């Protein structure tokens, strides 16, 4: 009996080690799979996948294995694999968004009238960033009567800004002042300038936080405040340039001369994407302030503009448009960003910052945008309001017809019609 017990114990021990060996082999196989998958996904980090938790789980699994706790190690490695599979499933579950439309047989002037008429018919309601872009587009295409009536009501109602986006109208006020020399427009623009000067929500760098409570610098901010602040002159001009330079410092990738969407002070990190409309905001800002700055600033700003345009010409799609993430070919072609980029390039040519050779890029952009206009004058293929996010967030933003799309296209067309 004693011998039987001893044999049983020996067999049990042997089975334990066999199971342990098999489990270890199973774990090592899973570990190899997980590390390979993790590496491959890290190569595509620009898609915005957050793999921090996966990396930590793999490290914990390896530590557990080293101390002999194989079952714990398997729990961690299984969890890491499930997270990576979930990320992939989320990405692959969305179809690529596309917009197709027939090319309208209209010249630039006829097209401008069609879009402007539709914009006015639908109405500009409110005075935030999207409405302001629409108003600037209408002013650029000669529809000043409608805009003047809107802004007169804005002044009469004494509407006060609550955030950065509601200061963009300052540029419209200054354009109306230049046109009509009515002091009320200049006074209201200065009130908005004072709001910016006294703005409390800033980072240690002095950069204005775009979205209250986030501690983030957004590229959107530059177009909302810098053009009108620089045009106002004096301390306003100084602050406008200061904000512009802070945002350039934090958001520009000097290696490719494109701009990221946002800088987060809490995580000390950037969004890993070159968003087309965001780069459009920046390029439009640079060319709009160019006539109002000193030669020293012009040298610096001009060099950035040249570099941006050189890169943009390489990423322009054969359609003439740019993708919502400029260098990501599997994201959709987006109309408002393309219009702002085309507008910026065209103005840079007319300002003498870049040569006439880039007119081919501009002409292609116009051609592409014409395929995005409905028979009624709606600008199609425009992404909705967009904050900073990961790859999937940008790639799947809702497409439609929005005021900021109408305005961006009118801004672009306005230059051609004023030649």
Number of helices: 16
What shape does the CA trace take?
elongated
How many individual domains? Answer: 2
What's the total number of strands? 9
Spatial gap, N to C terminus: 108 Å
What class would the helix/strand composition place it in?
A: mainly alpha
Do you know the CATH architecture of the largest domain? Alpha/alpha barrel
Strand residues, percent: under 5%
CATH fold-level assignment of the largest domain: Glycosyltransferase
Q: What is the CATH level 1 assignment of the largest domain?
A: Mainly Alpha
Strand order of the largest sheet: 1-4-5
Average pLDDT works out at 89
Q: From the alpha-carbon coordinates, what is the Rg to the nearest angstrom?
A: 28 Å
Main beta-sheet annotation: 3 strands, antiparallel
* Helix content percent band: 55-70%
How would you spell out the order of helices and strands? HHHHHHHHEHHEEEEHHEEHHEHEH
Q: Which residues form runs of ≥5 with pLDDT under 50?
A: 43-48
Helices, strands, pairings?
Blueprint: H1 2-43, H2 52-66, H3 70-92, H4 108-122, H5 129-140, H6 144-156, H7 170-180, H8 183-197, E1 216-218, H9 220-232, H10 234-251, E2 252-253, E3 258-259, E4 262-264, E5 269-270, H11 276-289, H12 295-315, E6 322-323, E7 333-334, H13 335-350, H14 359-370, E8 382-383, H15 391-395, E9 399-400, H16 403-417
Antiparallel strand pairs: 1-4, 2-3, 4-5, 6-7, 8-9
Helix pairs in contact: 1-2, 1-3, 2-3, 4-16, 5-16, 7-8, 7-9, 8-9, 9-10, 9-11, 11-13, 13-14, 13-16
Describe this structure in words.
This protein is mainly alpha-helical and 419 residues long. The protein has two domains: 91 residues, no CATH class; 310 residues, Glycosyltransferase. Helices cover 62% and strands 5% of the residues. It has 16 helices and nine strands. The protein has a three-stranded antiparallel sheet with strand order 1-4-5. Helix 7 runs antiparallel to helix 8 and helix 13 packs parallel to helix 16. The N and C termini lie far apart (108 Å).
């Amino acid at each position: 009996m004693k011998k039987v017990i001893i044999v049983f114990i020996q067999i049990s021990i042997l089975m334990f080690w066999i199971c342990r060996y098999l489990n270890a082999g199973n774990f090592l196989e899973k570990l190899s799979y997980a590390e390979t998958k993790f590496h491959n996904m890290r190569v595509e980090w620009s898609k915005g996948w957050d793999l921090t938790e996966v990396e930590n789980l793999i490290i914990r699994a390896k530590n557990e294995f080293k101390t002999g706790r194989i079952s714990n190690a398997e729990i961690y490695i299984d969890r890491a694999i499930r997270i990576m599979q979930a990320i992939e499933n989320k990405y692959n579950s969305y179809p690529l968004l596309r917009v197709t439309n027939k090319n309208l047989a209209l010249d630039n002037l006829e097209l401008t009238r069609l879009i402007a008429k539709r914009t006015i018919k639908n109405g500009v309601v409110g005075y935030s960033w999207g409405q302001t872009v629409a108003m600037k587009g209408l002013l650029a295409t000669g529809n000043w009567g409608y805009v003047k009536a809107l802004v007169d009501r804005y002044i009469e109602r004494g509407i006060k800004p609550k955030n950065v986006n509601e200061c963009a109208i300052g540029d419209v006020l200054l354009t109306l002042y230049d046109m009509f020399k009515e002091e009320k427009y200049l006074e209201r623009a200065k009130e908005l300038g004072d709001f910016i000067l006294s703005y409390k929500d800033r980072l240690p760098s002095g950069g204005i936080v775009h979205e209250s409570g986030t501690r983030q610098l957004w590229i959107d901010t530059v177009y909302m405040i810098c053009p009108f602040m620089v045009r106002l002159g004096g301390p306003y001009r100084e602050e406008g340039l200061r904000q512009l330079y802070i945002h350039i410092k934090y958001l520009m990738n000097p290696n490719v001369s494109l701009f990221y969407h946002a800088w987060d002070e809490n995580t000390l990190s950037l969004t890993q994407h070159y968003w087309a409309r965001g780069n459009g905001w920046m390029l439009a800002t640079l060319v709009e302030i160019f006539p109002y700055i000193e030669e020293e600033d012009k040298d610096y700003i001009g060099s950035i503009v040249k570099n941006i345009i050189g890169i943009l010409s390489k990423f322009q799609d054969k359609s003439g448009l740019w993708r919502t993430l400029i260098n990501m070919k599997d994201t959709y072609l987006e109309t408002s960003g393309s219009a702002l980029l085309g507008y910026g390039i065209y103005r840079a040519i007319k300002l003498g910052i870049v040569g006439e050779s880039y007119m081919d890029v501009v002409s292609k952009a116009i051609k592409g945008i014409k395929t995005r206009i409905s028979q009624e004058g709606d600008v199609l293929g425009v992404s909705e309001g967009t904050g900073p996010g990961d790859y999937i967030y940008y790639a799947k933003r809702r497409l439609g017809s929005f005021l900021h799309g109408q305005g961006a296209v009118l801004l672009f067309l306005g230059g051609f019609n004023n030649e």
